[in-house]
Write a structure and sequence with these properties.
seven-stranded parallel β-sheet, binds potassium ion, alpha/beta, binds ligand NPW, 449 residues, binds adenosine-5'-diphosphate
């Protein structure tokens, strides 16, 4: 099941709906605090704990969790930014009968810090009179567990407004937030555990989950299983990686247009000099860009065809105006540099920019990076689950575009094909020993499909 991802505004709207439908405000916080305590106990056991609480509902969750951790046998202290201001948090604080310390240079460290300073309500950097002691307490702790988000992180953008240090575990309330899956915040979250707190979460934004791949037709032939056609350019090694990956990702027939034999390709990948091959109606996906180099006519030729397209790498740098893609059934797979070359400096978070680019081109955009996003023109947005940083290796992108081309040729619709490709690529990386090279990803594909 794909986990939904909600903005801070959507979370508040959802919470409001629940209240209007009769959910008691404090009951919701009780559920959040209980989920936080339970996840903390499972992660770190009942140990010496310092709960840092802010004035809002994130702090409220902390008061509830602190009480339940005491009941579970942990030795717990609370240090607070100040008196709670949110209504439910005031009730939660009332239920805490022990002393509350201040957060300052005298606050004693503890084995486990429960970070309940700020969650989705953070709107600006944290003042240094709180940030400085909090940083010291994070560093001194053996484990840091964050409530909803590590404090200092902007929920919608994944920006780190104030760096307090990373959490080992983040317990997210109700739904994932964009920051759990956007850099640089995602790297500060540690493990992310979802706590269901009884809110009905649905969204067009979600974490990409294991795909349902098209079933094999027992009576089918190779062309039923998808034909990928690749255009070779100045550096054939790159398209060789894509073509090989497409074949391993289950395309029934993979062909490369090339004017000279490419070494190292499996013999099963057909190499052809025949320009007419591009008009083959059986082509399920045409892939151009990896290793294309400075040969713009390759893109021009691709854009004269009506086949579904995957445009990657150099092809993206030669598009020029995004309007040129209008009317094409295309998946674009830019990394940050290619994205900026094609779309300029769009404003907003990476999520906003990905969706703007998809709307502008009416194409599916795979906006790569440590936090890969898949955006559809209709507003769907898939966030990749974390993948090994070792993926930042030459040719890994070529492998990805090949896998996506195979999924498209196998009949998946563009957004689903792109999400499936991103998921398989990440899992293939996880299946490899580190350090790996792009070729190893291809070899690992059968293990994850
Ligand atoms: N919504 C839901 O469905 C559920 C939410 N739940 C929990 O509530 C959390 C959100 O709570 P929240 O809205 O009260 O905000 P929170 O993060 O505690 O911040 C508190 C206040 O701090 C202020 N402030 C902001 N930045 C600041 C700064 N740098 N330095 C100083 N002050 C700053 C700002 O007020 P301001 O000063 O801007 O008026 C803000 O309102 C959420 O993360 C989750 O844990 C769950 O319990 C149940 C389901
Ligand atoms: N730090 C990182 N953590 C996880 N994945 C990464 C990281 N950096 C890059 N990637 C992934 O590795 C691949 C690199 O693709 P790309 O930049 O096109 O490289 P190349 O052109 O060498 O093939 C993309 O799928 C990207 O999402
Ligand atoms: K927090």
């Amino acid at each position: 099941m794909a986990r939904p991802i909600l903005t801070a505004t959507e979370m508040r709207r959802l919470e409001q709906h629940a209240f209007e439908a009769g959910t008691d405000e404090y009951a919701l916080m009780e559920r959040a605090g209980a989920a936080l305590a339970e996840a903390t106990l499972r992660f770190a056991g009942a140990r010496e704990t310092l709960v840092l609480v802010g004035k809002g509902n994130n702090g409220g969750d902390g008061y509830v969790a602190a009480r339940l951790l005491v009941e579970a046998g942990a030795s717990v202290r609370i240090a607070a930014v100040g008196e709670p201001t949110a209504d439910s948090a005031k009730l939660a604080a009332k239920d805490w009968s022990r002393p509350v310390e201040a957060i300052d240079e005298n606050t004693a460290p503890a084995d486990l810090v429960l970070d309940c300073l700020f969650g989705t309500g953070l709107t600006r950097p944290i003042d240094e009179d709180i940030a400085e002691p909090a940083r010291r307490l994070f560093t001194a702790a053996r484990r840091v567990v964050a409530c909803d988000l590590p404090s200092g992180i902007e929920s919608d953008t994944g920006a780190i407004l104030t760096d307090l240090g990373p959490a080992d575990l983040t317990v997210t309330m109700g739904a994932l937030k964009p920051a759990h899956r956007l850099s640089p915040a995602m790297q500060a979250c540690g493990r992310v555990a979802s706590a269901a707190i009884g809110l009905e979460t649905q969204s067009d934004w979600f974490e990409i989950a294991e795909p349902d791949l098209p079933a094999l037709d027992a009576q089918g032939h190779k062309f039923d299983r998808g034909m990928v056609h690749c255009l070779s350019g100045a550096m054939p090694g790159a398209i060789a990686l894509s073509a090989h990956a497409a074949a391993r990702a289950g395309a029934g027939y993979v062909r490369v247009s090339t004017s000279r034999m490419i070494d190292g390709l499996p013999s099963s990948v057909v190499q052809t000099e025949d320009a007419g091959a591009l008009d083959d109606e059986r082509i399920g996906c045409l892939l151009v860009g990896p290793g294309m180099g400075d040969i713009p006519p390759l893109l021009t030729v691709a854009l004269t065809k009506t086949h579904p397209l995957v445009l990657d790498a150099d092809a993206l740098r030669h598009v020029g105006e995004p309007d040129r893609l209008a009317g094409h059934d295309a998946i674009l797979t830019p990394h940050e540099g290619e994205f900026r070359a094609l779309f300029g400096d769009l404003v907003g978070s990476k999520a906003d920019r990905a969706l703007l680019a998809a709307q502008q081109t009416q194409c599916v955009i795979v906006y790569k990076g440590p936090d890969t996003l898949v955006a559809a023109p209709d507003g769907r947005l898939g966030f990749a689950p974390p993948a090994p940083a070792a993926l930042a290796t030459a040719g890994a992108g070529d492998v990805l575009s090949g896998i996506i081309a195979a999924m498209r040729a196998r009949g998946m619709e563009p957004f689903e094909a792109a999400c499936a490709g991103v998921w398989l690529h990440g899992r293939a990386a996880e299946a490899c020993d580190i350090p790996f090279i792009a070729d190893d990803l291809i070899a690992a594909l059968p293990d994850v499909m």
